[in-house]
What we know:
Layout: H1 8-36, H2 40-73, E1 83-85, H3 87-105, H4 108-139, H5 142-167, H6 169-184, H7 195-212, H8 236-243, H9 252-275, H10 282-299, E2 305-307, H11 311-317, H12 322-336, H13 340-346, H14 353-369, H15 376-401, H16 406-412, H17 419-426, H18 429-444, H19 448-464, E3 470-473, E4 476-479, H20 487-506, H21 511-515
Antiparallel strand pairs: 1-2, 3-4
Amino acid sequence: xxxxxxxxxxxxxxxxxxxxxLLLLFLILSLVPPVCGIPVEIVVSHILxxxxxxxxxxxxxxxxxxxxxxxxxxxTDVTALPFGINTVSLMAYLFLIxxxxxQKTHDADLVWSAGIFACxxxxxxxxxxxxxxxxxxxxxxxxxxLAPLAGIALTFIxxxxxxxxxxxxxxxxxxxxxxxxxxxxxxRLPRGIPAGLAAILLGTxxxxxLHRFGLAPTPxxxxxxxLGFYLPHPAFDKLFAFFQREGAGAFxxxxxxxxxxxxxxxxQNLESAEAAGDRYATRSSLSVNGLSTLLAAFLGSPFxxxxxxxxxxxxxxxxxxxYSTVNGILLALICLSGATGLVLRFIPLxxxxxxxxxVGIVITAQAFSDTPAKHALAVAVGLIPCLAGxxxxxxxxxxxxxxxxxxxxxxxxxxxxxxxxxxALSQGFLLSSIxxxxxxxxxxxxxxxxxxxxxxxxxxxxxxxxxxxxxxxxEGAQALTGWWVCPSFTLAYIATSVVLFGLFFLHRNNPxxxxxx
Length: 517
């Protein structure tokens, strides 16, 4: 049979993938100006076009890769890998790098440069990960890899949207419940209509009906600008300007875990695609993922791209390769023409939040369901630093809004709220989450030598300030980087490693330890 460019199933796949990507563009347009201070005009004319072009390049490659596999094998059922902006990295960069920097400096150009720097470094790490990440993935327990991801999903993705939904229940609660029921119950809608699309359409209809009869407040106008042709320009000047700033290395505690998750998540998605019948080359697939992220940063977007989860789902819908090509083209047209805000004027953002909430819930549940049952405790421990990171952001925002300072609140707070401990745990919390979950999982398996090695890594990172290195000042929480900046934490981790080494020698004849040297 001839290999067609677009089949009926591609339409179903296109709807799901396009809506997923479009929601993230909505989020960028809606959150970047208030959270990061970057003007709407910059978002529309530079950031969104850069993000769309990086998505287009990736979509075209994975569509070509799928057609190449189909032609080589003589099959007509090959499905391209789904691709788009990395949701978790988007939220992490917004709320852990760009947002806090805006609160401290109120320098929008500096904030934008910091985001580009994070995206560029993340892209380089992703590119290196195409060659180096697989051995690390095989060594680290899955609990250590999924716990931080679940922590980010539960706190920075799910909870803020829950608050927005319940602040505007008239138009947001109904579509959220539809999404939860349809996806959790695996309910198939008539004619195979995607549940997310149905929830958005029905939610939009309800919202405009309630607005028409005055039963719900009129939403504020969506951020938008005039239609035109917005072609992004190279942003190397911002990248190098920020790279030379003192303290830029402090962001590695966020960038490195996000890049690691991106690479490992992409590896898992490649395995999922292979299990569904489509075997793609690992190195080229991951390399293009990293190159697309580098392209985004080069053109001025702070947001990495990634291979999406769900290839078997798109394949079951009947999607092949056309859905990937058309998705990239449509997103590019919308962003290059400045029409993102125009679309958002007709689709209230609130009716789309249920889908993002579902993403956060699924990622959190996966951390427990996809790890061995005995490692559930390690996942739970790994959530604690993420909760601290989220709580620290709320505390700092509240204190600043009240016109006070963290250093003053820390001295006046009661024993129920230990501000210094909260911020010490929140600094580099993604790395702390990996390390704590790994140590607990290794100890559960009696792999004491591996646990001792992780404790030594924790000591090294704390001595450099990449974890726990923070001081509270009237201007807010300031990261500490250098050498031996957290001696108390460093010594504690060294002592832990000594004990674990002792347990290794004490139990060196244990068959479980012998099986995992």
